[in-house]
Protein backbone atom coordinates (compact mmCIF):
# COMPACT_ATOMS: atom_id res chain seq x y z
CA UNK A 1 0.00 0.00 0.00
CA UNK A 2 1.16 3.56 -0.69
CA UNK A 3 0.95 5.46 2.58
CA UNK A 4 -1.01 8.64 2.13
CA UNK A 5 -2.56 7.75 -1.23
CA UNK A 6 -6.12 6.53 -1.44
CA UNK A 7 -6.36 2.95 -2.71
CA UNK A 8 -9.11 3.96 -5.08
CA UNK A 9 -11.56 6.69 -5.98
CA UNK A 10 -15.15 6.11 -7.04
CA UNK A 11 -17.00 7.99 -9.79
CA UNK A 12 -20.10 7.61 -11.94
CA UNK A 13 -19.52 5.43 -15.01
CA UNK A 14 -19.30 6.70 -18.59
CA UNK A 15 -20.20 4.77 -21.77
CA UNK A 16 -16.53 4.47 -22.76
CA UNK A 17 -15.77 2.54 -19.54
CA UNK A 18 -17.27 -0.56 -21.14
CA UNK A 19 -14.04 -1.63 -22.85
CA UNK A 20 -11.97 -1.56 -19.64
CA UNK A 21 -14.71 -3.38 -17.72
CA UNK A 22 -15.36 -6.14 -20.23
CA UNK A 23 -11.60 -6.77 -20.54
CA UNK A 24 -11.34 -7.93 -16.91
CA UNK A 25 -14.59 -9.81 -16.35
CA UNK A 26 -13.52 -13.37 -17.24
CA UNK A 27 -10.28 -12.96 -15.30
CA UNK A 28 -11.92 -11.44 -12.21
CA UNK A 29 -14.75 -14.02 -12.25
CA UNK A 30 -12.34 -16.92 -12.85
CA UNK A 31 -14.63 -18.32 -15.57
CA UNK A 32 -16.33 -17.11 -18.75
CA UNK A 33 -18.89 -14.56 -17.55
CA UNK A 34 -18.42 -11.63 -19.91
CA UNK A 35 -21.21 -12.57 -22.36
CA UNK A 36 -23.77 -11.64 -19.70
CA UNK A 37 -22.43 -8.07 -19.64
CA UNK A 38 -23.16 -6.65 -23.08
CA UNK A 39 -22.43 -3.04 -24.03
CA UNK A 40 -26.10 -2.07 -23.82
CA UNK A 41 -25.94 -2.13 -20.01
CA UNK A 42 -23.21 0.50 -19.84
CA UNK A 43 -24.51 2.55 -22.78
CA UNK A 44 -27.93 2.92 -21.17
CA UNK A 45 -27.26 2.65 -17.42
CA UNK A 46 -23.93 4.46 -16.96
CA UNK A 47 -25.61 7.16 -14.91
CA UNK A 48 -26.45 4.71 -12.12
CA UNK A 49 -23.28 2.63 -12.53
CA UNK A 50 -20.01 3.16 -10.66
CA UNK A 51 -16.32 2.85 -11.47
CA UNK A 52 -13.54 2.62 -8.87
CA UNK A 53 -10.03 3.45 -10.01
CA UNK A 54 -6.61 3.08 -8.45
CA UNK A 55 -4.49 6.25 -8.26
CA UNK A 56 -2.83 5.45 -11.62
CA UNK A 57 -6.21 4.99 -13.29
CA UNK A 58 -6.30 1.17 -13.31
CA UNK A 59 -9.76 -0.30 -12.83
CA UNK A 60 -10.19 -1.25 -9.16
CA UNK A 61 -13.84 -2.26 -9.27
CA UNK A 62 -17.18 -1.52 -10.84
CA UNK A 63 -20.92 -1.82 -10.34
CA UNK A 64 -23.31 -1.87 -13.28
CA UNK A 65 -26.81 -1.24 -11.99
CA UNK A 66 -30.04 0.51 -12.85
CA UNK A 67 -33.29 1.85 -11.50
CA UNK A 68 -35.90 -0.45 -13.02
CA UNK A 69 -37.81 1.41 -15.75
CA UNK A 70 -40.80 -0.93 -15.37
CA UNK A 71 -40.83 -1.75 -11.65
CA UNK A 72 -40.90 1.64 -9.96
CA UNK A 73 -40.05 0.30 -6.48
CA UNK A 74 -37.01 -1.66 -7.62
CA UNK A 75 -33.35 -1.18 -8.42
CA UNK A 76 -31.13 -3.90 -9.85
CA UNK A 77 -27.40 -4.68 -9.72
CA UNK A 78 -26.51 -6.48 -12.93
CA UNK A 79 -22.76 -6.93 -12.45
CA UNK A 80 -20.24 -5.94 -9.79
CA UNK A 81 -16.62 -6.89 -9.45
CA UNK A 82 -13.45 -5.96 -7.58
CA UNK A 83 -9.85 -6.52 -8.70
CA UNK A 84 -8.52 -9.65 -6.96
CA UNK A 85 -5.73 -7.80 -5.14
CA UNK A 86 -8.24 -5.35 -3.61
CA UNK A 87 -10.79 -7.86 -2.34
CA UNK A 88 -11.97 -7.99 1.27
CA UNK A 89 -11.13 -4.33 1.76
CA UNK A 90 -14.74 -3.17 1.64
CA UNK A 91 -14.71 -1.84 -1.93
CA UNK A 92 -17.72 -3.83 -3.16
CA UNK A 93 -19.61 -2.87 0.00
CA UNK A 94 -18.86 0.79 -0.71
CA UNK A 95 -20.05 0.49 -4.32
CA UNK A 96 -23.28 -1.20 -3.19
CA UNK A 97 -23.88 1.38 -0.44
CA UNK A 98 -23.48 4.21 -2.95
CA UNK A 99 -25.91 2.43 -5.27
CA UNK A 100 -28.38 1.91 -2.39
CA UNK A 101 -28.20 5.63 -1.61
CA UNK A 102 -28.89 6.50 -5.26
CA UNK A 103 -31.81 4.06 -5.33
CA UNK A 104 -33.27 5.50 -2.10
CA UNK A 105 -32.98 9.03 -3.49
CA UNK A 106 -35.17 7.87 -6.36
CA UNK A 107 -37.72 6.35 -3.98
CA UNK A 108 -36.74 2.74 -4.62
CA UNK A 109 -37.39 0.33 -1.75
CA UNK A 110 -36.01 -2.97 -3.05
CA UNK A 111 -32.68 -3.94 -4.63
CA UNK A 112 -32.35 -7.20 -6.52
CA UNK A 113 -29.51 -9.15 -8.10
CA UNK A 114 -28.81 -12.72 -9.17
CA UNK A 115 -25.81 -15.02 -9.41
CA UNK A 116 -24.84 -18.47 -10.55
CA UNK A 117 -25.13 -21.16 -7.83
CA UNK A 118 -21.37 -21.88 -8.21
CA UNK A 119 -20.49 -18.32 -7.21
CA UNK A 120 -20.04 -18.87 -3.48
CA UNK A 121 -18.17 -15.56 -3.04
CA UNK A 122 -21.06 -13.64 -4.50
CA UNK A 123 -23.57 -15.49 -2.30
CA UNK A 124 -21.47 -14.83 0.83
CA UNK A 125 -21.04 -11.17 -0.13
CA UNK A 126 -24.74 -10.53 -0.76
CA UNK A 127 -25.72 -12.35 2.44
CA UNK A 128 -23.22 -10.19 4.38
CA UNK A 129 -24.88 -7.07 2.96
CA UNK A 130 -28.28 -8.21 4.19
CA UNK A 131 -29.76 -9.61 0.98
CA UNK A 132 -32.22 -12.50 1.26
CA UNK A 133 -30.69 -15.41 -0.67
CA UNK A 134 -32.91 -17.88 -2.54
CA UNK A 135 -32.30 -21.55 -3.12
CA UNK A 136 -30.96 -22.18 -6.65
CA UNK A 137 -33.85 -21.67 -9.08
CA UNK A 138 -33.69 -24.23 -11.90
CA UNK A 139 -33.72 -22.86 -15.48
CA UNK A 140 -34.18 -19.30 -14.12
CA UNK A 141 -32.36 -17.72 -17.07
CA UNK A 142 -33.29 -20.40 -19.61
CA UNK A 143 -32.53 -24.12 -20.00
CA UNK A 144 -29.76 -25.27 -17.60
CA UNK A 145 -29.10 -21.70 -16.44
CA UNK A 146 -29.94 -22.04 -12.75
CA UNK A 147 -29.63 -18.89 -10.65
CA UNK A 148 -29.64 -17.81 -7.01
CA UNK A 149 -31.69 -14.64 -6.54
CA UNK A 150 -30.97 -11.85 -4.04
CA UNK A 151 -33.41 -9.33 -2.63
CA UNK A 152 -32.87 -6.56 -0.09
CA UNK A 153 -35.32 -4.01 1.28
CA UNK A 154 -33.78 -0.58 1.55
C1 LIG B 1 -18.00 -10.69 -4.71
C2 LIG B 1 -17.00 -9.51 -4.74
C3 LIG B 1 -17.58 -8.41 -5.63
C4 LIG B 1 -16.81 -8.99 -3.32
O1 LIG B 1 -15.94 -7.85 -3.39
P1 LIG B 1 -15.08 -7.35 -2.12
O2 LIG B 1 -14.67 -5.94 -2.38
O3 LIG B 1 -14.02 -8.34 -1.83
O4 LIG B 1 -16.16 -7.41 -0.96
P2 LIG B 1 -16.10 -6.59 0.44
O5 LIG B 1 -14.67 -6.44 0.87
O6 LIG B 1 -16.89 -5.34 0.30
O7 LIG B 1 -16.84 -7.63 1.38
C5 LIG B 1 -17.94 -7.27 2.21
C6 LIG B 1 -18.33 -8.51 3.00
O8 LIG B 1 -18.82 -9.53 2.13
C7 LIG B 1 -18.41 -10.83 2.62
N1 LIG B 1 -17.49 -11.44 1.64
C8 LIG B 1 -16.88 -10.84 0.59
N2 LIG B 1 -16.12 -11.73 -0.09
C9 LIG B 1 -16.25 -12.91 0.56
C10 LIG B 1 -15.69 -14.21 0.37
N3 LIG B 1 -14.84 -14.48 -0.65
N4 LIG B 1 -16.03 -15.19 1.24
C11 LIG B 1 -16.86 -14.96 2.27
N5 LIG B 1 -17.42 -13.73 2.53
C12 LIG B 1 -17.12 -12.74 1.67
C13 LIG B 1 -17.68 -10.57 3.94
O9 LIG B 1 -18.63 -10.62 4.99
C14 LIG B 1 -17.17 -9.16 3.73
O10 LIG B 1 -16.92 -8.48 4.94
P3 LIG B 1 -15.51 -8.75 5.73
O11 LIG B 1 -14.42 -8.71 4.71
O12 LIG B 1 -15.47 -7.63 6.72
O13 LIG B 1 -15.65 -10.11 6.33
C15 LIG B 1 -15.60 -9.96 -5.26
O14 LIG B 1 -15.20 -11.15 -4.60
C16 LIG B 1 -15.54 -10.21 -6.76
O15 LIG B 1 -15.30 -9.30 -7.54
N6 LIG B 1 -15.75 -11.49 -7.19
C17 LIG B 1 -15.72 -11.83 -8.62
C18 LIG B 1 -16.87 -11.20 -9.34
C19 LIG B 1 -18.21 -11.68 -8.80
O16 LIG B 1 -18.42 -12.85 -8.56
N7 LIG B 1 -19.15 -10.74 -8.60
C20 LIG B 1 -20.44 -11.09 -8.02
C21 LIG B 1 -21.44 -10.04 -8.16
S1 LIG B 1 -22.15 -10.01 -9.84
UniProtKB/TrEMBL annotation:
PROSITE patterns: GNAT
UniProt-listed InterPro entries: AcTrfase_GNAT_prd, Acyl_CoA_acyltransferase, GNAT_dom
Ranges where the N-acetyltransferase domain occurs: 8-154
Pfam family, one: Acetyltransf_1
Keyword terms, alphabetized: Transferase
GO MF entries: acyltransferase activity, transferring groups other than amino-acyl groups
Domain of life, source organism: Bacteria
UniProt name for this protein: GNAT family N-acetyltransferase
Amino acid sequence: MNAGLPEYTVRTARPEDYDAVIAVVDDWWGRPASRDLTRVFVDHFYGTSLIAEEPGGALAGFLIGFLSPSESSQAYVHFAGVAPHLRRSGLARELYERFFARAREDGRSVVKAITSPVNERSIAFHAALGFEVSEPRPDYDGPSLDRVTFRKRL
